[in-house]
Write a structure and sequence with these properties.
The structure is a single chain. This protein has helices spanning 13-23, 45-61, 74-86, 92-105, 131-151, 164-174, and strands at residues 2-6, 28-30, 68-71, 111-114, 157-159. It is of the alpha/beta class. The protein has a 5-stranded parallel sheet with strand order 2-3-1-4-5, sandwiched between helices. Helix 1 packs across helix 6. The N and C termini lie close together (11 Å).
């Protein structure tokens, strides 16, 4: 089973992946693709394209492994590129190619766990974390997932809410664990 944990930055993905792995050590953890790139501009289109490529490469490479949980997946980076466009900071030429790459990678994912921002359990971020991009990415992510579902191109998608413990229980249930 290959689970992808998706969400905007500072939404609780790392905590969920860590908690999940502690409870299910048989799963291989693939960390945030950002950790595998070199970028002087982490919120740039070039950075998100590089992370998209890493994410897709990891999906291909881990296809033979039994149980994998990934922090972020291809659709996250499509959402970031879309968010940059929405904010007037993007490169529209990259979006159509990113969309194609994302659609072609969905077959390698068994479950997408989405962590939306939750006003009841907020995670505050400083201004240097680009709160405007954070909000725009979340909107773009939810729209992209809806589009993939409508087109029949998405694996099962579960939206996780509540405290970290509640999110973990919801993920385990969705994964049949």
């Amino acid at each position: 089973m290959h689970i992808v944990v998706s969400g905007t930055h500072a939404s609780g993905k790392s905590t969920l992946v860590s908690d999940f792995h502690a409870a299910h050590p048989e799963f291989t953890v693939l960390g945030d693709p950002f950790d595998d790139i070199e970028s002087d501009a982490p919120s740039s289109a070039a950075s998100f394209v590089a992370q998209l490529r890493v994410s897709i490469s990891r999906l291909r490479e881990s296809a033979r492994e039994g149980s994998v949980i990934s922090e972020r997946g291809p659709v996250d980076f499509l959402a970031y590129l879309t968010a940059l466009e929405m904010l007037g900071r993007g490169d529209g030429a990259l979006l159509s190619r990113a969309q194609e790459l994302v659609e072609s990678s969905m077959a390698r994912i068994d479950l997408i766990a989405v962590l939306p921002l939750d006003a009841r359990h907020p995670i505050d971020v400083p201004d240097d974390e680009d709160p405007e991009l954070r909000e725009a990415m979340e909107s773009a992510l939810l729209d992209a997932l809806d589009d993939l579902e409508r087109a029949g191109d998405a694996p099962p998608i579960v939206t996780l809410t509540g405290t970290p413990g509640e999110r973990l229980a919801q993920l385990e249930h969705a994964a049949g664990l």
